[in-house]
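Progress against Task 2.4 (sequence-to-structure conversion) is shown through the following example record, which the project officer requested during the mid-term review.
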Amino acid sequence: EFEFTIGPIPFQDGLGKEVVSRFSTDLDSSSTWYTDANGREMQKRRLNYRPTWKFNSTEPVAGNYYPVNSRIFIRDESKDVQFTVLTDRSQGGSSLNNGQVELMLHRRCLYGDGRGVGEHLNETGLVVRGSHFVSLDHTSNATVLHRELGEALMLMPWLALLPSNETYPSYKDKYNMEYAGLTMDLPPQVHLLTLELLGDKKILLRLEHQFQADEPLNTPVNITLDNLFTAFKIAQVTELTLGGNADLSSVHRLQWNTKDKEGMGMGPAWNGNGRQVLKAPGIVVSLSPMEIRTFEATIE
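Structure tokens generated for the chain above:
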């Protein structure tokens, strides 16, 4: 873990400044790096390249910067090694040279860039503090680590302190010091994304598969929901759309004709066949790689 504190950025020389953290390695990354899409699927990036048009590089730095919501990594395929940096906030990132990872931490610009916004980023007295979490490991191990660590960092517990005259043994005897909301561990691929009370005996439940099809632990998994939670049992679930605002069985997706035949239909997972209502006992749901499923559950 690397912690940084930056600012206020000096400007007395009349020049704007962008402060970056640059990690240099001897890995052969082949001018390729990967950034996350909102903490989920990893997107492949290549220096001075766009997959759908011929790239004309007029801004060699800015033109190769991409949003990094939670992680960025490079790989050396010949060594089966991956260098990963996880962030504690959204930042811009790139790999401008082979074997390097770069993240922008802070900037202060005294002039606009002439791109139409009409204002500059001259924020006075701004101090930024944060952390980067770095790992170097074999590719398969690194993938599992950044998936699990990314969730842990995003959902890091908040510590609260209060004054007390009680001794620890006395406090421990008086209060419950541990609580587990689940009766069992979820499979490592599965993350409980949402658990929200909707009303009397109704909850919104959302589960996600954290791994991509080309990553380790990419197999579909089944989860039994009946007795998963400590405080209640699930009697029935109705599958909803991802946003949770309509029954999945009522959704009829548009069928698009595309040149490469992709997106012709969304498949059986999207039409609700056999997936609308499940009742206890034996409420088992399946998750495929990168899939998120949303349910309204009746509890007792």
